[in-house]
Amino acid sequence: MTAASPSSGSLSVVGIGPGFADWVTPEAARLIHAASDLVGYAPYLDRCELVPGQARHASDNRVELDRARAALRLAGEGRRVAVVSGGDPGIFAMAAAVFEAIEDGEPGWREIDVTVSPGISAMQAAAARLGAPLGHDFCAISLSDNLKPWALVEKRLAAAADADFVMALYNPASHTRREQIRGAFALLRKLKSPATPVIFARAIGRADERITLCDLGDADPDLADMATLVIVGSSGTRLLRRPNGAPFVYTPRGARAAS
Amino acid sequence: MTAASPSSGSLSVVGIGPGFADWVTPEAARLIHAASDLVGYAPYLDRCELVPGQARHASDNRVELDRARAALRLAGEGRRVAVVSGGDPGIFAMAAAVFEAIEDGEPGWREIDVTVSPGISAMQAAAARLGAPLGHDFCAISLSDNLKPWALVEKRLAAAADADFVMALYNPASHTRREQIRGAFALLRKLKSPATPVIFARAIGRADERITLCDLGDADPDLADMATLVIVGSSGTRLLRRPNGAPFVYTPRGARAAS
């Protein structure tokens, strides 16, 4: 973290994790506390402790680019701006939008001191709650086709199935977008065993956290909503039964061998 | 986090991130502080503040299963054990080894209260330092063939290249293992543009942090060692030049369109 010079402002893109306060890193807390302006989706800003004199600029969940431009404008005026992002800003969150806005924006924006502060992403929180489903090679795919063709999503799902990656599926659905997760499951059912473990992890770390463990054969894709992260296992992903409590789900580091 | 009953011990697998203290979550710090026994690779334990009366069980970097079994034995004796892992224990770290040890171990071990606490993984730290190279669909692949056939690594690299994922390559090399990263680059050079951005991120968050940005065409795979995380871009990964400082590297959220 380099401090902004008085003449030029600074912009930090800060990840506050999935919602559990004990997953917010000290770096993220420090950057948010030190900011003159907080920019972000309202529910994320609501999770930040108010600092006297700090300006808050809450926005809707979409319009990432507008939000990024507003933050850059403030930093360009010499403000110390923190763009507050859920999860890890570098994983299907605000960081990419900020760099897109810089590249397409005013030349002066390239001189702003921009830093990214990583956070716990939804797939990590979900994995930790279940055991270690991401314990070996995996991929992370956004099912949103707002910014990419659905054919590319299908190509990546098929490649991930063929190469037997564990899959973390982000943005599986929204109020208006239901077809993508249904289409993804229809495709994966053609390519993977019906016994493949599937996890619907909703609002992990929040009061309304809900985890559903099922298998690909009978998984109901409509369990996924905007707040859900879906994990689809590889052929190696296993359930570890326990006498008390739900089974652990984990993916061994290699081919299983009695050891 | 459920507290262990006095009769049965507990085991938490705790991620302390890549090495920067400000990336250790409050949950991880709390679990380490509350543990009666810390088990882990010596350099990770050295990063934990000593608590009077706390027992430390340092081990070598390999032998993950032995370390997991030792931790489970202690928990089985009623101890409150924290297995200290670098990065995120669920991503190419200790969590999977612990569940493998439980599955193959004493039946009583399945009754131990086991929790996993996520952490910042090396790919997230590296991405944050550079900009947002993981800003869209990506995969994480371990190049170690200690526990899986090299042919499977090559299949996954080829699938990731064909479907145009950004790639985070873990365990690229060790003192004794140099061929994997060379083989991986030889394969990727056949499948991807020589202009593809490549990042060698070594010891991120530590005093000897070193980041090398190059392109696939002239990247020297021997820059990678045990402490290096390698990121290979997708066709969309871009360099954002700055008048001052190194370029940012980021992967847009979708096809680039002037906005």
TrEMBL record, chains A, B:
One Gene Ontology term of the molecular function aspect: methyltransferase activity
Gene Ontology terms: biological process: cobalamin biosynthetic process; methylation
Pfam families for this protein: TP_methylase
Annotated ranges, domain Tetrapyrrole methylase: 11-219
Highest taxon in the source lineage: Bacteria
Coiled coil: none
Keyword line: Cobalamin biosynthesis, Methyltransferase, S-adenosyl-L-methionine, Transferase
Pathway(s) where this gene product acts: Cofactor biosynthesis; adenosylcobalamin biosynthesis
Secretion signal span: none
The protein, known as: Precorrin-3B C17-methyltransferase
Species, as recorded: Methylocella silvestris (strain DSM 15510 / CIP 108128 / LMG 27833 / NCIMB 13906 / BL2)
